Amino acid sequence: MNKLLDYGRKALFYVRVLSGYEERRIRSFRMQLEQRVLQAQARKAAINKVPEQIILSEVRRMVEEMQALNKKLEETEVAIEEYFKPLDMEAEVLMKMQLQGEENKSEMMMKALQEQAMRQEVEARKSRSMHQTDNIETNQNASETLVKTCIGEEEKTLKDSVHEADKEEKTLKL
Fold this sequence. Notes:
This protein is an all-alpha fold. The chain has two helices and no strands. Helix content is 98%, strand content 0%. The radius of gyration is 67 Å and the shape is rod-shaped.
């Protein structure tokens, strides 16, 4: 019976081969295998793309978080500026007051320096005029003294000459 079954199977196989059924079955199986291979390749490509997509989605998420943080930072900066505006205004007023005070002090210092310079100039003029007067007096005194000394020397010389002449006369008389 086993032989009969084997013979029936072989006969049925030959009929299928001759009728083209087996060939179509083999082709369809081959096509199924090819489709499975293509699907497997597509899944493999999708799996290979998954890390790229994960990385890209992670990068997008990080960029969005950074943008959100930048926006919060800008909002915080604006809030801080609004909070410190009154203080800035007060500081500006104080700075203006200090600058005005310094300008007043510098103007007073300049006036004082100018007055001092004028006093020094007047004193210098007085001292120059006094010095010139002293020089003139000294020159006059010196010239008078020189004249007196010159006259005194001439008188002395004359007296000496007269005295010598007297001596000579006395010696001649004797």
